[in-house]
Specification:
Elements: E1 5-7, H1 13-24, H2 30-34, H3 43-46, E2 49-54, E3 57-71, E4 74-86, H4 95-109, E5 115-117, H5 121-124, H6 142-147
Parallel strand pairs: 4-5
Antiparallel strand pairs: 1-2, 2-3, 3-4
Length: about 160
């Protein structure tokens, strides 16, 4: 069942921070200390926090943060995706998918030329995010290896 998506209001900021800390398992105040430029109780910042709630409780969030970048001498504002989180008890119900599709529509409506997202490529490739840079770093996670049914090979670490 799809639930409505809305942006946060400044009076809900403290509740939102508690949601984020619970979803990520971080300590109190972590997000304001680590990302003070993103997490502030202002109307402008709260308008970038997209949430799904049920019975007054925030269940899931995706942030759409404008990021100014310069590439090849051209300054662009791109759509930065962050704070993708769902409470553990609410996972597996499609809330992240619903929110990501919503913010993709918002980025199109706001005419962002591209988007930046740091995270698990296996998770976000399905939504259209792909690596785009002049260098490439291949990373394997336990999760990605399990999809290919790869099993660990015992190794012995030695000094060269």
């Amino acid at each position: 069942m799809k639930l409505p998506i809305r942006t946060l209001q400044p009076p809900e900021f403290e509740e939102f921070m508690q949601f984020m800390e619970r979803a990520y398992g971080h300590s109190r105040g972590f997000f304001q200390r680590a990302y003070p430029h993103l997490y502030q109780p202002t109307p402008e910042k709260c308008a970038t926090y997209y949430v799904i709630e049920k019975d007054g409780e925030i269940l899931s969030h995706v942030g759409l943060y404008p990021i100014r970048i310069v590439t090849a001498g051209v300054e662009l504002t791109v759509g930065g995706i962050g704070g993708v989180a769902t409470l553990p008890a609410a996972r597996g119900r499609g809330y992240m998918t619903q929110l990501l599709r919503h913010v993709i529509g918002e980025m199109r409506a706001q005419a962002y030329p591209l988007s930046w997202l740091g995270g698990d490529r296996q998770r976000y490739n399905a939504y259209g995010w792909e690596l785009a840079s002049s260098s490439y770093q291949l990373t394997f996670s336990r999760r990605s290896l399990s999809w290919g049914q790869a099993t660990p090979t015992p190794i012995e670490e030695v000094l060269p």
